[in-house]
Every structure is written in C-alpha cells, then in structure tokens.
Amino acid sequence: MASLRKTWGTMRIVALPLTRAPPPQRIITYYSFKVVPPPAPPPPKESQSSSWLPKEGVVKWAAYKVDSTWSGWGKAETGSWRLRVFEFGERFLDKLDFEEGALKRIDVKQAPPTNVPADLTGAEREEAEAAWAKLEVPLFYPPSVLSGPSALSELRAFLQKRIPQHNKGFWTYLLISPLTAPFMIIPIIPNLPFFFCAWRAWSHYQALRAARHINGLLENGKIVPAADTTLDAVYADVAADSKEAPPADVEKDSTSKPTMIVTRDSLGHAMRALEMKPDEAKDVLRACEQAANRIR
C-alpha cells in the first residue's frame, strides 16, 4: 500500500542463532534489525536559509560530531592521551554486549509504529488504520535451526531479558553522572568520567527504547516469522564438520553445555546474503566471539 511508505518506514528482522542449547537453557542469537525510512518530504523553502538548526536534526548532528571526534582521537599522535583513551575505548567496545549495539542502531522514529499514531484524525486516520492493519514485519530465520514458533519465542525471550537490563543500566549511569562533577576541575583534560557515564546512559536508553518498540510490534502480532533457506548456508559448513551432533529438534540432556553452531568464516555467508555494511559485519564477528566466551 502506497500510503504505508508515506506514513512510516518498513522493517525486517533477521535471526542468526549462534549457539545450540537444550531446554531450559536459552540459545544466543544475533539479531539484524534493518529499517528502511519513508521518503523524506522536501523542507519548506523558507527554512532552508533561515533555520540555524542542522537539517538532519540536533540528535543526529551531535552523534555525528561525537563519532568524528572519536575517530580523530584514533589518529592522534603516538603516546598522546587522546590516542591512549581511544585505544582503551576500543577495547571496551569489544566487550560491550553485542545485543546492545544491535538494538541501538534501530531508528525508532522511522520504524513502523506499534499502533496507529493518536494525533491522526479523519480520512488521514482511516488511511493509516488501513495501512497498519496490513503491516507485517518479517522475522527471517534459518529453517535448518529454528521453526517459526521457536523464532518468535526466542525473540520474545531476548526482549524480556534486554528491556529490564537496559532500563537498569540507563538509570544507574544517569544517577552516577552527577557524582563525576569534581573531575571538571582538572585542567586541559576533559571530564572523561562524566562523558563516559553520559554516553553509557544514552546508549542504554537507545537500546531500551528500541527493545520496547520491537516488543510492542511483537505483542500486537505485527512480527511474522519467515523461513529463509539462504541463511542455512551459515550453518551448513559447521554441520558437515559435526555430523555426530543431533538435529535441533532432537531432545538432549538438559545438563549438557551449549555449543557454537557458527564460525567467523561461516558468518561470511550471512554478511554477503544480507549485504551488511562494515559496522554491522564487525558487530556480527564480535557477537561470535562473545558467544564463544559466554559458553566456555
């Protein structure tokens, strides 16, 4: 429906299980969330020259400034405090939960809404209701590893875990931030503790907001499982090397340990099939390493 794209963007979710585990243990899954925004309306002519605000919005402008500043620190002179902070930060990012990184990439404002916007009236509301009634967010999954019901069940468990975790993280770092005020008296060097706490609070908030949004779509029945056989290539190589492993639907001893069902090389199939950008490809490999460390 044409009005669907004009009102809000479209979305797709891809589930890539990283481990196999017997019930009641949960498997570890990497979720790729992609939002395609609706066509942007042309800005009013008078605002093009008179507005002092950045056209992409203050939040996106600030995020770009932070990213460019951080990248600049990575190119700082060897031995400088900026480079040392950058190197420490990169090591910390590698340890940051990959689930948080995947969630906070979601632009909730451009994603399909969890319900019809309340500010719409008349014919505009009727059109939006008709579009929302047909709205479906596909949840693609590898049929050799998951079934449709299990894909939905795993996504629901994922959200039930992440929502309280990010809610706690947001409030914790938000309340700690004022305690870093004494560091402002140190000359030359920025108040890094404050910026760190503020960044962690913002990161948790972005992930929390996204997780709640996905959960709203799920609870309203808008997320629909869709088998994608092209994703089976991610698991084919590992399965061939582990022929003694039972199929995913075979009951196993609940005391056995979870096992990895992907490798860095096999995930290359997913990167190509999903046309992942470098940042997301890096996140997938980080997820593989973290999953391996968690089950050791």
Mean pLDDT: 80
* Shape assignment: globular
What's the end-to-end separation, in Å? Answer: 48 Å
Quaternary state of this entry equals single chain
Secondary-structure-based class equals alpha/beta
Strand residue content: 5-15%
Largest sheet: 4 strands, mixed
Low-confidence stretches: 1-5, 244-252
Count of beta strands = 6
In which range does the helix fraction lie?
Answer: 40-55%
Radius of gyration: 22 Å
Order of helices and strands: HEEEHHHHHEHHEHEHH
Largest beta sheet: strand ordering: 3-1-4-5
What are the salient characteristics of this protein?
296 residues, alpha/beta, 4-stranded mixed sheet, 6 strands, disordered N terminus, hydrolase activity, membrane, transmembrane helix
Notes on the protein architecture:
The protein is an alpha/beta fold. It has one domain. It is 51% helix and 10% strand. It contains 11 helices and 6 strands. The strands form 2 sheets. A 4-stranded mixed sheet has the order 3-1-4-5. It has a two-stranded antiparallel ribbon with strand order 2-6. Helix 5 packs across helix 8. The N terminus is likely disordered.
